[in-house]
Every structure is written in structure tokens, then in C-alpha cells.
Amino acid sequence: MIPFNVPPCVGDEIEYVKQAIDSHKICGDGAFTKQCNAWMEERFGAQKVLLTTSGTTALDMAMLLCGLEPGDEVILPSYTFSSTATAAVLAGAKLVFVDIRPDTMNIDETKIEAAITDRTKVIIVMHYAGVACEMDTILDIAHRHNLMVVEDAAQGVMSTYKGKALGTIGDFGCYSFHETKNYSMGEGGALVINNPAYNERAEILREKGTNRAKFFRGQVDKYTWVDFGDSYLPSELNAAYLWAQLLHADEINDNRMATWNAYRAAFAPLAQAGKVELQTIPEDCVHNAHMFYLKCKDLEERTALIRYLKDNGILAVFHYIPLHSAPAGRKFGRFDGEDRYTTRESERLVRLPLYYGMTEEDRNRVIDCVFAFYAQ
Ligand SMILES: *Cc1c(COP(=O)(O)O)cnc(C)c1O
To answer: Where N6-(pyridoxal phosphate)lysine occurs, residue numbers (predicted)?
Structure first.
């Protein structure tokens, strides 16, 4: 069976995990966590990065830091993972879903302004497949209406928009290091803070509502409970695993990109023949080969393709059920405007196996199998 995903492992993870154990420091914010934060700050040009226990809790932190009040509204795409939305619900917001663009499956920036009301406080964008949303337009709308922008960059680590790392463009950026993402620590994530005014509040929120981070820097002589908070620090064991991956970040990226490019070249004739559609990478965007997907004619054809691949030992998957049509989406939000693409395009999309270390032989088997399906 060719799996859909294999968690990345470069080989030296175990050595760093052992170092964490030997240092007798396995709780949060030890040497490995600090190294990971500093690496991302440097590499992505971010003023502050904090590792978290997941991409979801990074989003929770971002939404809580936005300071929403009951009845406030948050604009987001319906075509996204539940975490994007549930973080806003946790912070007390009402969800306002808008349609996506069919070419990138990202939020349609031209539909945002019509969804703004006097209760709107935040726009959450999700960079699908590590391909950036149209951020210049979105930031312009946010500035004109005095809104905050949170980037769900869970899939966008190492991607850029006009040369800027995804996650560093809005007020906050959120990364995921789940095992299904390009870089992993099992479960984990990171919050990118782009406005230094939020640094201190973020540290307090992450450290159970205490000013412990300040205490460790010697800025206060005792630490105490100063505001509401939660626990968002990952263990050093997880951070040590991630550290090994960050040191090999370019190698992982190149390896995934080679598979992505090979898929792309192989499927070009199928796209030219009008059998499938391929994803669009806008000119300003450098992506990270997080995902390779095809779009079939319709839901029926997609179901048949996934079944055909499975019968031939290949696991391909689809997502997402649009949030506005899910039970919780109906409870916590509304769709603004017309659902022209969200439902229709999500029903046609199929993701092919793509992971660090995928062999050429397996990749070719996937390609041959898709061609065999369309030759029937
Ligand atoms: C993976 C993912 C998340 C959640 O990340 P976790 O680390 O699994 O909590 C959030 N948003 C998007 C778009 C994702 O792909």
C-alpha cells in the first residue's frame, strides 16, 4: 500500500531527543524550544515566534490576543480545517464565511469587503496548500476598516508571498507541526507575533496567566498570576524532534518539491486533454510543496478515482466538508454572499500521496494509476 502521508523523519531526531532527556529538562521552554523559536525568527524574518502545543492552540492564542468581545464577527473561508473556525468561536466570535477562489482554493479577497459589518473585528485567512492568499488586497481592506488579520499558515511553513514568509504578514501567523505537515514534532505548532505590542500578553497567555517568562529573563524578581491564561508550551521532547527537522528544512523542502514537480509535469498532458485541473500558483507566491491535488470533473468521478486508486494499493484523500454546511458551522456562523465555488470545488478535489522521502518508484505508480483510470 502506498500511504497518503508518512511523518517526516530525517534520522537525527532521536539524538536530539536523547540530549533533552540527558539534560534533565523535558518540560517546556528549554534549550530546544528556544533554538526552534530563534531559528524561525531568523529564517522567516519574524520579530517573535513561540512554539505551541499545536497549530490549533496557536490559532486559539492568536484569536484570544485579538481581544474579541461577545457579538464580534470574524470573516473566514468556509473551505478550511475546523481549527481555523473553532479558535474564533473559543474567543467568543460569530463566524462569517465567504467564498473561495477556484484557482487557489483560498479566500476570495474580492468577497471580503461586502461581508464586513460594524461588528467585524478580524479577518482570518488560510493559505491553502502553502500557496498564499492575495495579501496586499486583504491588508488594504483590513487597514481601511481597522480590522486585525490572522494568518492560518498551518500549511505554509517555508512558503512566501512577494518574498515575505507566510505567517509574518498579518498581525499573527499560526504554524502547525502536526505529523501531516511538512515539518513535524508529532503534535505542535507555533505562534508568530508580528506586532511587538502583543509579545508580553502572549507570553502570559501561554504560561498559565503568569509573568514567568519575564521572571526567567530577570525582568521581575518573583513571578505571579497576572491575567487569564492557559498552557500552550510543548515538551522539550517534541521541540527536540522539530529541531532536527528545522536543521534539514531545505532538504525536506527540496525533496517534497521534486515529487511535486514530477507530478506536475506528468499530469500536464492530462490537464491539457481536459480530463483534470491542476492547481494554480500565482506569480507572487513561492509554495512549499505541501500538497499535490487534482480536480476531477465532479464528485462522482472523484469517488470513482479514489476507489480505483485504493483497489490498486494507493491511498488518496479529499477534504474539506465546507464548514458552513457542517453542524457546528451552522450553529456558530453564516455564509455571506453566494456559495459559488466552496461546495462545488471541494467536491472535485483529490489529494495524491506526497511526503518527504517518497520514492520515485511509488510516485510513478501513482501517476500510472491515475492515467490508467482516465484511459478506461
Ligand atoms: C493542520 C491544520 C491546522 C491544525 O493544526 P494542528 O497542529 O493539527 O492543530 C489548522 N489549520 C489548517 C489549515 C491545517 O491544515
So the answer is: 181
